[in-house]
User: Fold this.
Amino acid sequence: MTTITAEARREESTALKWGVNLMTLGAVAFIGYAVLFFVRNFTDSFLELGIGAGQVDKGKDAIQAFSPDLYHYISHLHIAVSAFIAATGLAVAALSWFGVRRGYMWAWLAAVGAPVLGLAVALPAHYPWGFATIGHLGLVYLATAIFVVGAVLSGKVLLEEEGRRETRA
Assistant:
């Protein structure tokens, strides 16, 4: 009689494949958002995607005319934030593709934990000052929704596999 290993069952799991693909797609979308964020810093738009005169009454030229040092400071923050968004996206994509796909619960926990931490800290700061526009956060919410669907699908498979292992032990 042939025994099907946990690894083989995982390989055949459509839910795990879809989950991993969606988690990875969401993570890559975060990288794409970071690229947009980075590029806008060097254009006349300067301010973040979806942030305009309705949210900030001064643009690139006015900020630069008021204080070149302040302009450079804001620019460096744009660059740093975009780098951290991209780095998180890359790490989450790698954890999802190489760890979650192989059924490692630790990879799933890290892949889910990193963006949850980032979003839990960053998103609330958008609301008190009116920066939570759909133009600004819409792509982030879309990428997050895709990622969450993938995390739920793959997480369910991994939890079921953990339950089967515990039952056999």
Summary: Residues 5 and 169 are 14 Å apart (CA to CA). The longest helix spans residues 134-168. The chain has a mean pLDDT of 92. The two ends are 21 Å apart (CA to CA).
